[in-house]
Amino acid sequence: MTVDNLAQPARKHTEVAVGVLLRESDGALLISSRPAGKPYAGYWEFPGGKLEEGESVEQALRRELVEELGVSIGQAIPWKVTEHDYPHALVRLHWCKVTAWSGEFEMREGQQMAWQQLPLEVHPVLPGAYPVLQWLSEERGLVFDQGYYEAQQPKP
Ligand SMILES: Nc1nc2c([nH]c(=O)n2[C@H]2C[C@H](O)[C@@H](COP(=O)(O)OP(=O)(O)OP(=O)(O)O)O2)c(=O)[nH]1
Fold this sequence. Notes:
Its cofactor is Mg(2+). This protein has helices at residues 3-7, 57-69, 130-139, 146-150, and strands at residues 13-21, 29-33, 44-45, 48-50, 72-73, 77-85, 90-98, 101-102, 113-116. By secondary structure, it is an alpha+beta fold.
Protein backbone atom coordinates (compact mmCIF):
# COMPACT_ATOMS: atom_id res chain seq x y z
CA MET A 1 0.00 0.00 0.00
CA THR A 2 1.36 3.43 -0.85
CA VAL A 3 1.37 6.50 1.37
CA ASP A 4 -1.24 7.99 -0.96
CA ASN A 5 -3.60 5.07 -0.31
CA LEU A 6 -3.14 5.42 3.43
CA ALA A 7 -4.11 9.06 3.21
CA GLN A 8 -7.34 8.30 1.30
CA PRO A 9 -10.53 7.87 3.33
CA ALA A 10 -12.38 4.63 2.43
CA ARG A 11 -14.87 5.22 -0.40
CA LYS A 12 -18.43 4.95 0.75
CA HIS A 13 -20.72 2.58 -1.12
CA THR A 14 -23.81 3.90 -2.85
CA GLU A 15 -26.58 1.35 -2.27
CA VAL A 16 -28.68 0.66 -5.36
CA ALA A 17 -31.83 -1.46 -5.77
CA VAL A 18 -32.14 -3.09 -9.18
CA GLY A 19 -35.04 -5.05 -10.63
CA VAL A 20 -34.81 -7.93 -13.07
CA LEU A 21 -38.35 -7.93 -14.46
CA LEU A 22 -39.07 -11.26 -16.10
CA ARG A 23 -41.98 -11.62 -18.50
CA GLU A 24 -43.84 -14.83 -17.82
CA SER A 25 -44.94 -15.57 -21.39
CA ASP A 26 -41.46 -15.84 -22.91
CA GLY A 27 -38.90 -15.13 -20.15
CA ALA A 28 -37.89 -11.80 -21.74
CA LEU A 29 -36.01 -9.28 -19.56
CA LEU A 30 -36.86 -5.61 -19.22
CA ILE A 31 -33.96 -3.33 -20.00
CA SER A 32 -34.06 0.45 -20.05
CA SER A 33 -31.74 3.20 -21.19
CA ARG A 34 -30.24 5.73 -18.79
CA PRO A 35 -31.78 9.16 -19.24
CA ALA A 36 -29.87 12.24 -20.41
CA GLY A 37 -28.08 14.08 -17.64
CA LYS A 38 -27.04 10.98 -15.62
CA PRO A 39 -23.59 9.40 -15.69
CA TYR A 40 -23.51 6.86 -18.54
CA ALA A 41 -26.54 8.46 -20.21
CA GLY A 42 -27.85 6.29 -23.04
CA TYR A 43 -26.36 3.07 -21.64
CA TRP A 44 -28.78 0.17 -21.14
CA GLU A 45 -29.35 -1.16 -17.65
CA PHE A 46 -31.88 -2.91 -15.48
CA PRO A 47 -34.34 -0.44 -13.96
CA GLY A 48 -33.76 0.76 -10.40
CA GLY A 49 -31.93 3.42 -8.46
CA LYS A 50 -30.34 4.55 -5.24
CA LEU A 51 -31.79 3.84 -1.83
CA GLU A 52 -32.97 6.92 0.01
CA GLU A 53 -32.41 7.41 3.74
CA GLY A 54 -34.26 4.77 5.77
CA GLU A 55 -35.51 2.78 2.76
CA SER A 56 -35.22 -0.99 2.32
CA VAL A 57 -34.12 -2.41 -1.02
CA GLU A 58 -37.69 -3.45 -1.82
CA GLN A 59 -39.10 -0.03 -0.89
CA ALA A 60 -36.52 1.74 -3.04
CA LEU A 61 -37.15 -0.54 -5.99
CA ARG A 62 -40.90 -0.08 -5.70
CA ARG A 63 -40.49 3.72 -5.61
CA GLU A 64 -38.00 3.80 -8.50
CA LEU A 65 -40.16 1.69 -10.78
CA VAL A 66 -43.13 3.96 -10.22
CA GLU A 67 -40.96 7.06 -10.79
CA GLU A 68 -39.21 5.72 -13.89
CA LEU A 69 -41.70 3.37 -15.50
CA GLY A 70 -45.08 4.00 -13.90
CA VAL A 71 -45.58 0.39 -12.79
CA SER A 72 -46.30 -1.01 -9.32
CA ILE A 73 -44.36 -4.16 -8.62
CA GLY A 74 -45.46 -7.16 -6.62
CA GLN A 75 -42.87 -8.95 -4.55
CA ALA A 76 -39.21 -8.09 -5.16
CA ILE A 77 -37.35 -11.35 -4.59
CA PRO A 78 -33.80 -10.65 -3.33
CA TRP A 79 -31.36 -12.48 -5.60
CA LYS A 80 -27.69 -11.43 -5.33
CA VAL A 81 -25.51 -8.46 -4.39
CA THR A 82 -22.59 -7.16 -6.45
CA GLU A 83 -20.24 -4.19 -6.28
CA HIS A 84 -18.89 -2.09 -9.09
CA ASP A 85 -16.29 0.66 -8.85
CA TYR A 86 -17.02 3.43 -11.37
CA PRO A 87 -15.06 6.69 -11.58
CA HIS A 88 -18.26 8.48 -10.44
CA ALA A 89 -19.21 6.12 -7.59
CA LEU A 90 -18.57 2.83 -5.81
CA VAL A 91 -21.93 1.10 -6.05
CA ARG A 92 -23.41 -1.88 -4.27
CA LEU A 93 -26.13 -3.35 -6.42
CA HIS A 94 -28.93 -5.28 -4.74
CA TRP A 95 -30.45 -7.42 -7.50
CA CYS A 96 -34.05 -8.56 -7.15
CA LYS A 97 -36.17 -10.69 -9.42
CA VAL A 98 -39.64 -9.37 -10.13
CA THR A 99 -42.28 -11.47 -11.86
CA ALA A 100 -45.44 -9.50 -11.08
CA TRP A 101 -46.36 -5.88 -11.67
CA SER A 102 -49.39 -3.82 -12.59
CA GLY A 103 -49.97 -0.71 -14.63
CA GLU A 104 -48.96 0.42 -18.10
CA PHE A 105 -45.29 1.12 -18.81
CA GLU A 106 -44.66 4.83 -19.29
CA MET A 107 -41.21 6.28 -19.90
CA ARG A 108 -41.38 9.00 -17.25
CA GLU A 109 -37.75 10.10 -17.58
CA GLY A 110 -37.60 10.22 -21.37
CA GLN A 111 -35.71 6.93 -21.47
CA GLN A 112 -36.35 3.90 -23.67
CA MET A 113 -37.24 0.37 -22.67
CA ALA A 114 -36.96 -2.98 -24.42
CA TRP A 115 -37.98 -6.55 -23.68
CA GLN A 116 -34.97 -8.61 -24.60
CA GLN A 117 -33.79 -12.19 -24.82
CA LEU A 118 -30.16 -13.16 -24.25
CA PRO A 119 -27.74 -12.12 -25.59
CA LEU A 120 -29.09 -8.57 -25.47
CA GLU A 121 -29.41 -6.79 -28.78
CA VAL A 122 -29.37 -3.28 -27.32
CA HIS A 123 -26.06 -1.60 -26.60
CA PRO A 124 -23.97 -0.30 -24.95
CA VAL A 125 -24.79 -2.09 -21.68
CA LEU A 126 -23.69 -0.68 -18.30
CA PRO A 127 -20.71 -2.80 -17.15
CA GLY A 128 -22.19 -3.15 -13.65
CA ALA A 129 -24.96 -5.25 -15.20
CA TYR A 130 -22.64 -7.88 -16.74
CA PRO A 131 -22.73 -10.27 -13.73
CA VAL A 132 -26.50 -10.46 -13.94
CA LEU A 133 -26.37 -11.25 -17.63
CA GLN A 134 -23.93 -14.03 -16.77
CA TRP A 135 -26.19 -15.55 -14.07
CA LEU A 136 -29.24 -15.31 -16.28
CA SER A 137 -27.33 -16.97 -19.12
CA GLU A 138 -26.20 -19.77 -16.80
CA GLU A 139 -29.76 -20.29 -15.58
CA ARG A 140 -30.83 -20.70 -19.20
CA GLY A 141 -27.98 -22.97 -20.25
CA LEU A 142 -26.52 -20.25 -22.49
CA VAL A 143 -22.90 -19.22 -22.83
CA PHE A 144 -22.15 -15.72 -21.50
CA ASP A 145 -19.60 -13.89 -23.63
CA GLN A 146 -18.50 -10.70 -21.89
CA GLY A 147 -16.35 -9.81 -24.90
CA TYR A 148 -19.52 -9.46 -26.98
CA TYR A 149 -20.74 -6.69 -24.65
CA GLU A 150 -17.30 -5.11 -24.25
CA ALA A 151 -16.93 -4.85 -28.03
CA GLN A 152 -20.10 -2.71 -28.08
CA GLN A 153 -18.77 -0.16 -25.58
CA PRO A 154 -18.00 3.29 -27.04
CA LYS A 155 -14.31 3.66 -27.85
CA PRO A 156 -12.51 6.07 -25.48
N1 LIG B 1 -30.44 1.06 -12.21
C1 LIG B 1 -29.27 0.47 -12.44
N2 LIG B 1 -28.11 0.99 -11.97
C2 LIG B 1 -26.99 0.32 -12.25
C3 LIG B 1 -26.98 -0.88 -12.98
N3 LIG B 1 -25.70 -1.32 -13.10
C4 LIG B 1 -24.94 -0.42 -12.48
O1 LIG B 1 -23.72 -0.45 -12.38
N4 LIG B 1 -25.71 0.61 -11.95
C5 LIG B 1 -25.18 1.77 -11.25
C6 LIG B 1 -25.18 3.03 -12.09
C7 LIG B 1 -25.34 4.14 -11.06
O2 LIG B 1 -24.04 4.48 -10.57
C8 LIG B 1 -26.12 3.47 -9.95
C9 LIG B 1 -27.58 3.80 -10.01
O3 LIG B 1 -27.75 5.14 -9.75
P1 LIG B 1 -28.71 6.12 -10.56
O4 LIG B 1 -28.02 7.41 -10.70
O5 LIG B 1 -29.21 5.47 -11.79
O6 LIG B 1 -29.88 6.16 -9.52
P2 LIG B 1 -31.10 7.15 -9.32
O7 LIG B 1 -32.13 6.82 -10.37
O8 LIG B 1 -31.48 7.03 -7.88
O9 LIG B 1 -30.44 8.55 -9.68
P3 LIG B 1 -30.63 10.03 -9.18
O10 LIG B 1 -31.07 10.74 -10.41
O11 LIG B 1 -31.63 10.00 -8.07
O12 LIG B 1 -29.24 10.42 -8.75
O13 LIG B 1 -25.97 2.06 -10.11
C10 LIG B 1 -28.19 -1.41 -13.48
O14 LIG B 1 -28.26 -2.45 -14.17
N5 LIG B 1 -29.31 -0.69 -13.17
